[in-house]
Protein 1
Amino acid sequence: MFTSIKGKKVLITGASGGIGSSMALLFAKFGASVGIHYHKGEDEAKKLVQMIKKEGNLCHEFKADLLSESGEELVKAFIDHFEGIDVLINNAGAVFGFKDFSELDLASWEKTFQLNARAPFFIARKAFSQMKENGGGKIINISSVAAKYGGSNRSMHYGAAKAALEAETIGLARAGASHNILANAIRAGFIDTPFHQKLTTKNIQQRINIIPLKRAGQPEDIANMALFLASQGGDFITGQILAVSGGD
């Protein structure tokens, strides 16, 4: 099933982080040409590119600040370099102003929405246009269980932004169906990365105890689902919010 990944041109935003780098390595393992987007993690991105190229796979890093750009130039740079795009994974995300909602400032709200909802929309729209010309493609948005629970008292705006991302996913799926452009979202649960650990207001073990499977997820759990959706296994799946959360 995963042999269909070979030769696919895959752009991953926020690929220098834990989940992003795991996806990049997995897609490269199956022969994809991978675009590594980063903003501040230049060292990590370059090391990742070197690792992938060392295994004989095509890879290139792309720098873009998605807080100050729409992201469309990032997609254009990727398309110019790889001469097309088959799979887009909107993975970049963060929380700004991680404080009680009663103290949340407007700038933190806007930056959180910019990175988690606005940028993915414009990135997907640009990729959509190219995919339409090429006869189809896959768009995979990385959401969060925060969209289900509304976040904590300190991350309500993050939960709201991820809920917006999920709504965008459904809209893109509907718009793309007649063009063989499939769009889905992966709703990630509590994943064992510094980013997700920061979001919990409880003791880490207490947070894990809430999960029915009684363990934190690993970046590879998200990467495996992304690979499945991008492969021929996901060719009849679109407009879905797929939870990878241990039952959470």
Protein 2
Amino acid sequence: MRRREFITLLGGAAAWPLAAHAQQPTRPVIGFMSSRSAADSEYLVAAFRKGLSEFGYVGDQDVAIDFRWANGHYDELPALAADLLRRKLAVLVAVGGEPAALAAKSATSTIPIVFTIGGDPIKIGLVASINLPGGNATGVSLLAIAPEAKRLAMLHELMPRTDLIGVLINPKFGDFESRSRELSEAARILGRWIEFFRASTDAELQSAFESIMQGKAAAFIVTADPFFDSRRDRIVAFAAQYRLPTIYQFREFATAGGLMTYGISLTEGYHQTGVYVGRILKGAKPAELPVHQSIKFELVINLKTARELGIEIPANLLALADEVIE
């Protein structure tokens, strides 16, 4: 072989790895924006990744996920969405309730959006219909807000002689006026008095705690809200310190020491969100993916906390419980 031919061949061989590298497909980028905090969402991200892996997208090998967390500060969500959109996203995930989904929807009408919310996506303008969303957004409705009256009824059954029940509620989340009216009407039907304590910031939450300590409410409902979820340990610790029987929305409050929870499984919802992102990455259109509605509610009772509070759980509530924490 002539020297020139050898050098030419060698140069071509040296270029092979570069060419092969250049031809490797670029990993799709998923923007993941949440109203919650990273610390209280680790298990939810794991559920999301599990759903995604069912379509062949495992960890950071096959996709890149760029996370943004609002930590319960809903006014920061539009800026987080704008920041994510500076990347070439394949899908924008908006979880942690309506504020994140609405911020994503306002930020783009072209990039596919997969949301996880607690209420009605038609009512707030995210989709045209449940079966055929019709735009660039689809996702999961956890129906977290719907059972507020049911939680009140369960607390009434647990504490039938309590004169006043307190309600911790965020006036900046969901349809505050509608939720307040529904709870007030449910209380009227049950023949109970309720008092609302409003909080949408850490300072307001502290003020609510101080008002609760000075008031006469002897039992509490913590309404559905990602801000409260991200302050879960703080709220549960307060209820324990002042011996307040309290019902919450998600199982995670009971495992953290809360007395009782009634609501949808968050992990199931986030798993389904991952499934939908996987389907979109495989070519499905959000406009044609029906909004997934979680319909299985779970009642979780923490008997250890009940004993510490000196409360006996009625037999009928125990019989209804999907999980009892000893």
